[in-house]
Amino acid sequence: MTQEIGGFAALGIHSAVLAAISAVGYEEPSPIQAQAIPVILGGHDMIGQAQTGTGKTAAFALPILSKIDPARREPQALILAPTRELALQVATAFETYSKQMPGVGVVAIYGGAPMGPQLKAIRQGAQIIVATPGRLVDHLSRNSALLSTIQFLVLDEADEMLKLGFMDDLEVIFEAMPESRQSVLFSATLPHSIRAIAEKHLREPQHIKIAAKTQTVARIEQAHLMVHADQKIPAVLRLLEVEDFDALIAFVRTKQATLDLAAALEAKGYKAAALNGDIAQNQRERVIESLKDGRLDIVVATDVAARGLDVARITHVFNVDMPYDPESYVHRIGRTGRAGREGRALLLVTPRERRMLQVIERVTNQKVAEVRLPNAQQVLDARIKKLTNCLAPLVADAEASHGELLDKLIADIGCSPRALAAALLRKAANGQALTLAEVEKEQPLVPTSGPRERSDRPERSGDRERRAPMPLAEGRARCRTPLGARDGIAARNLLGAILNEGGLAREAIGRIQVRDSFSLVELPEEGLERLLGKLKDTRVGGKQLKLRRYRED
Ligand code: AMP
Predict the structure, then answer these.
(1) Of ligand 1's atoms, which has the minimum distance to the CA of residue 302?
(2) Where is this motif: Q motif (predicted)?
(3) d(Cα 16, Cα 21) in Å, to the nearest integer?
(4) Which pTM value belongs to this model?
(5) What is the pLDDT of residue 514?
(6) What is the rounded CA–CA span in Å between residue 42 and residue 239?
(7) Of 327, 350, 454, 475, which residue has the fewest beta carbons closer than 10 angstroms?
(8) Strand runs (DSSP E) across 471-534, as ranges?
(9) pLDDT (0 to 100) of residue 396
């Protein structure tokens, strides 16, 4: 086991949980984890001020799993989350971290799905319940003793829960749990309403917050790109096409991610290598030396492995995975702009991490401008520019050395000099597209949707559980149109248009969810691109349908 996992071991986490963390490739605790884990293991109530992206889920999941008794087959921990997506995400995290703990079960409880399987999982002895408040209250109204054995409670994204109008449900849930439980509350902000809950329902909570001093980051030009989590690698490859860099360091969170990205870069012909905590010290030093002397141009590193890395050639830092806190961000981007040179830092942000971006902007006191992925024309221009730069220095003496050969080839093949030059270009391109049509055909990336599509105002009861998209049936893809209720659209209008113009059978179309400013439609995955092509010019209620594949991260 590497020295870095020692960082977790020293916190007192159960060995089975340590083994699971090691398997997912975490190298060291994030700051919120380093602070919160000992407090939770020590049995204290706690208020943690942290947003998505800081590693807060593991900050409570790891100590709770360390304290669970797998032999007792009854609910022991309850995690409350504001939305279905977050509940599912947290439940998945618990499943991952409990992989080496036979007998530990996790159940996710949320609206919009049948209650039967959820009840069955509880009856089968799941110890961890991850729930949205609304549906949990429904369960409680049928079985008031459901939470009577709970020992650990976590309120995750407590401020979001209150914004969504769950205050009354929370009170019902508090009442249904033993007072002797340990309670932990995580919230990005601590408005009065959250403090009031803590005052009433937590016992002498310890307050944990990652100190955020204002930091200065001069000389470094910063930008961010919104991207879905599963599209980070293609996005990086696309960005690199147009970035003029000398050496670059890309930061990711896990060992596996260093390997995946380095492999993708190498496959595209970049001189790239991975740097992570599993790589022996002497090998790490060799990688850094290679970056210094130009045998490597890109290093993909975790924070741990990049410690002490100081290479003046670095012109670019790509934060492919979000750093855990603003200090770490400032530290990472400080790897460029060395020796008085200009540097450029780029941050990839998934839709759930927008808040973290705002925190970074506040702490660094700088706006981190949004950039978009380069379009096909920009990619092509950059490729042509590179080709020009590479050929220009050769023309001076290439004619003297290779002119005769050229004449011979023209004669032997029987073609024009232009035809031969074009053939040589194609060969030099080595499979890389050099026409607009070809570049356009290269993998298109799915744009992220606009600002977080979740309203801040409290919702009517019953409405709120429907906010998050429902889980997809197999073979279905979710598509989105910017037309919604405010455009006067109803589900039957969308259904009619898609049936008529797409030539589909009724049963091929799944759920249609009409929201205020957009709608989601479930369509068959098979032949989806063709179908979307057919619907390209479809109008509903006089407005363009603009149906696109929709991905959540
Ligand atoms: P969260 O803030 O809980 O949403 O976590 C954000 C992401 O960080 C998740 O994808 C986690 O898998 C990842 N993560 C959490 N803790 C660590 C760690 N110590 N090392 C590497 N990745 C982590």
Answers:
(1) 21
(2) 6-34
(3) 9
(4) 0.64
(5) 83
(6) 46
(7) 475
(8) 476-481, 512-514, 519-524
(9) 84
Taking 50 as the threshold, does the pLDDT of residue 242 lie above it?
Answer: yes
Q: Which range scores top for mean pLDDT: 66-70, 301-305, 352-356? A: 66-70
CA of 430 to the centre of ligand 1 (A): 39
Residue nearest to atom 20 of ligand 1 (CA): 26
> Which residue CA neighbors atom 12 of ligand 1 most closely?
55
Cα–Cα distance measured from residue 167 to residue 197, given in angstroms and rounded to the nearest whole number: 9
Query: How far does the centroid of ligand 1 lie from the alpha carbon of residue 458, in Å?
Result: 29
Which atom of ligand 1 is nearest the CA belonging to 52?
2
Q: How confident is the model at residue 98 (pLDDT cuts 50, 70, 90)?
A: very high
- Which residues have CB under 6 Å of ligand 1? 26, 29-30, 33, 52-58, 253-254
CA of 180 to the centre of ligand 1 (A): 30
- For residue 143, give the nearest of 97, 112, 176, 105 by alpha carbon: 176
Residues 6+ away with beta carbon under 8 Å from 410? 416, 417, 420
CA distance 447 to 231: 10
The helix-helix angle for 133-142 and 167-175 (nearest 10°) equals: 40
Residues 6+ apart with CB under 8 A from 107: 91, 118, 121, 122, 126, 128, 129, 130
Q: State how far the Cα of 298 lies from the Cα of 268, in Å rounded to an integer.
A: 12
Contact 157, 54 (CB under 8 A): no
- Reported as a single tens digit per residue, the pLDDT across 431-462 is 888 889 888 887 666 555 444 333 333 333 34
Which of 189-193, 315-319, 490-494 shows the highest mean pLDDT? 315-319
Model confidence at 298: pLDDT above 90: yes
Closest residue CA from atom 5 of ligand 1: 55
CA distances from 229 to 233, 320, 322, 525 (A): 9, 10, 11, 20
Give the ligand 1 atom nearest the CA of 56. Answer: 3
Find the 93 Cα to ligand 1 centroid distance in Å: 9
- Tell me which residue of 278, 308, 309 sits closest to 296, measured CA to CA: 309
Residue 470 has pLDDT above 90, yes or no: no
What is the amino acid identity at position 178? P
pLDDT, residue 447, reads 58
For residues 127 and 102, give the distance between their C-alpha atoms in angstroms, rounded to a whole number. Answer: 12
Element of type H or E holding 129 = strand 128-131
**C-alpha of residue 97 to centroid of ligand 1, in Å:** 12
Structural domains in the chain, CATH included, are 2-209 (3.40.50.300), 220-373 (3.40.50.300), 377-441 (no CATH), 459-549 (3.30.70.330)
- C-alpha to C-alpha distance for 297 and 455, rounded to whole angstroms: 44
CA-nearest residue, atom 16 of ligand 1: 55
Separation of CA 34 and ligand 1 centre (Å): 13
Three-state secondary structure of 382-400: HHHHHHHHHHHHHHHHHHH
Residue nearest atom 13 of ligand 1, based on CA coordinates: 55
Positive or negative, the Cα torsion across 524, 530, 531, 532?
A: positive
With contact defined as beta carbons under 8 Å apart, do 276 and 256 qualify? no
Cα of 31 vs centre of ligand 1, distance in Å, is: 11
Q: How far is the CA of 253 from the centre of ligand 1 (A)?
A: 7
